Amino acid sequence: MGELYVALIHAPVYNKNMEQVATSITNLDIHDIARSSTTYGVRAYYIVHPGQVQQDLARRIMSFWREGYGAEYNPNRFEAFANVRLKSMLEDVMEDINREQPDKKVFTVATDARIYPNSISYTNLRRKLEETDEVYLILFGTGWGIIKEEMEKADYILEPIYGSGEYNHLSVRSAAAIILDRLKGN
Known about the structure:
The chain is built from eight helices and nine strands. By secondary structure, it is α/β, with parallel strands linked by helices. A hairpin with a 5-residue loop joins strand 2 and strand 3. Helix 1 (about 25-40) crosses helix 4, helix 1 packs parallel to helix 8 (about 170-185) and helix 6 (about 120-130) packs across helix 8 (about 170-185).
């Protein structure tokens, strides 16, 4: 069985005008993706942001649920936050995973609502996770998605999630839950 990691990328991403920006860390994204990641057996969930002020905000939120009153009040949330890690850049995430998995290549799998040439289906990626012992890092972009240059560096790009109509702009926490269910659900 393969190992699965998740990273929520806050920079570099696009805004609605397709300008490169860093987005703000949100309390809901931290909580909901941590809960989904724990539910589906993700090894670690990384929050990636280069800004110190934003990192401090994430640390305060995480600390409350790991060490503060929140840890006693809601043990389930404490468990969900146990594997949440904060990094400044994607390269830091890769170094961290490579330390944990020193003899394995880490395959990056970017996500986007747009179609790219090297897309992989959920069925094929799920098969890889079930039938190999390879390591995969799913990259979720905030804002309007991970910048093109970073997307092109990924080993794979997951096909978009399609609903029943033309509208296709899910929140990242909703997309993460759907994708994790497709890859690891029963």
